[in-house]
Design brief:
Blueprint: E1 7-16, E2 19-29, E3 34-38, H1 45-52, E4 59-64, E5 67-68, H2 74-79, E6 82-85, H3 97-106, H4 111-115, H5 123-132, H6 147-159, E7 165-169, H7 177-191, E8 195-199, H8 203-209, E9 212-217, E10 220-225, H9 227-231, H10 234-241, H11 246-253, H12 264-267
Helix pairs in contact: 3-5, 3-6, 5-6, 10-11
């Protein structure tokens, strides 16, 4: 697969006072797929995302297309087209959905355009409202949205900035099953035109919506491939529940369509 317009991570290393949090991780993500990073607590998932977005210093290489991101400031990485969500949605709760999107869209406007009186709602904002399913909530204060709707609003606030890549940290944590389904379908739509990289603990969500999966363990790549390939890997099964529980893990990961996996016992909490 061509790497033009792709996110390519090569031999990424992140250390904190001598502790190796990420030790030589390599993977890639492309438009047209929903790419997942999974792993137990402390595996290095969020630290990888932090390094890609400039929040943590790393060595190796992280390229978006032909542009090297490592060593680049957070603001420049955003301008280059990398958007990122956190585990807790960051929205302006006293403002309406529309106002939140308008503020986010303004981050890429010139000073002159901000001074001009605007007529109507920008097409990018209308598109984000429709894509996230928030069109009927445009005048609703963000603070009274459901948990899932707040996450969708934050995704919409990235979409209006027309990013090339979206990095999402546990986007369905705390959501109802219906919200999880809506979020998975939203990510699939977004991925048709953009890079989508998801850090997630919810194994059922991963199984349903991942195109490819990279499993991290102790800062290194443990396994990588399609969902079926990864969930059948004995190394992955052993990491989650130990050798004795490997068969149980495989059964839990291979939930039949239409069923809901009970994965809380192996997916609670987030570590780097």
């Amino acid at each position: 697969m061509t790497t033009t317009g792709s996110l390519v991570v090569t031999d990424l290393r992140v250390e904190f006072d001598g502790f190796v949090a990420v030790g030589g991780v390599s993977f890639d993500a492309h438009p047209g797929e929903v790419r997942f990073l999974i792993g137990p607590n402390g595996a290095g998932k969020t630290t990888c995302i932090d390094a890609i977005t400039g929040l943590s210093k790393g060595s190796g290489s992280v390229k978006l297309g032909d542009q090297e991101l490592l060593g680049t400031s957070v603001n420049k990485i955003v301008r280059l087209g990398v958007g990122r969500t956190f585990q807790t949605a960051s929205v302006f709760e006293q403002l309406s959905v529309l106002q939140n999107l308008d503020i986010a869209a303004g981050l890429h406007r010139s000073s002159l355009s901000l001074l001009r009186a605007r007529r109507g709602i920008e097409p990018a904002i209308e598109s984000a409202l429709e894509e996230t399913g928030l069109s009927t909530e445009r005048e609703t204060p963000a603070g009274i949205l459901s948990h899932g709707q707040k996450q969708w609003l934050e995704i919409g606030m990235m979409l209006v900035q027309e990013p090339r890549a979206l990095l999402l940290d546990e986007p369905v944590a705390g959501m109802s099953q219906d919200e999880r389904t809506a979020t998975g379908e939203l990510l699939q739509r977004i991925a048709q035109r953009r890079i989508v990289l998801v850090v997630e603990h919810d194994m059922d969500f991963m199984r349903r919506y991942a195109s490819r999966v990279t499993v991290l363990h102790q800062g290194k790549v443990l396994s990588e491939g399609a969902v079926a390939q990864v969930q059948a890997d004995p190394k992955v099964q052993e990491v989650y529940l130990g050798t004795a529980g490997a068969a149980t893990t495989a059964a839990m990961l291979a939930v039949p369509d239409g069923a809901t996996a009970t994965t809380d016992s192996i997916t609670q909490g987030e570590g780097a």
